[in-house]
Design goal:
single chain, 162 residues, mainly beta, 5-stranded antiparallel β-sheet, 2 helices, 5% helix, globular
Length: 162
């Protein structure tokens, strides 16, 4: 995790010409690396049940639920250091929102060791504020959305970030 206070909006250009701009104020960047041990893909396949719905699923999207008040506080979403489009969806009925990395097209082998990062700003740079009811829940989806196992990236006592 990197963090700091940024008095003025800074720019960070990647090779594709994407300009990453953070609003002024405190910020923190969080990253997590996919592991087959998370249990959403080939790691969950067993000889007793090789036809389980999620066995060997493709990794097409990862979505993370956050507190709805933080929906405008997530920036600089990357996959293996490459900036991705920021997609935020509000769920006003639950005072929640989600941010997602889409169109990933990764096999289980490709997904393993893939690193996802995002930067949260302002009060939401604190995971306890960003999280929805004290937890940061994530789900991965296959291209058909037939399989979408969920897991927690943060629970207040445990986190899968660095």
């Amino acid at each position: 995790m990197a963090s700091g206070v940024q008095p003025e909006a800074a720019e960070d250009n990647d090779q594709d010409g994407y300009t990453a701009v953070l609003p002024p104020g405190p910020w923190a960047t969080y990253c997590t690396t996919v592991s087959l041990r998370w249990g959403f893909t080939a790691g969950r396949c067993t000889p007793a049940d090789p036809d389980s719905q999620c066995c060997g699923m493709a990794f097409d999207k990862m979505e993370t639920l956050i507190d709805g008040a933080c929906r405008r506080s997530v920036f600089n979403m990357t996959v293996n250091g490459v900036f991705r489009e920021r997609i935020i969806t509000p769920y006003s009925q639950w005072s929640a929102a989600s941010f997602k990395w889409t169109s990933l097209g990764l096999s289980p082998e490709q997904a393993s060791s893939t690193t996802f990062c995002f930067t949260a700003v302002g009060a939401c740079s604190d995971l306890s504020v960003l999280s929805l009811q004290g937890r940061l829940q994530a789900a991965v989806f296959d291209p058909t959305h037939a399989c979408c196992p969920t897991f927690f990236l943060y629970t207040g006592r445990h986190r899968r970030f660095w």
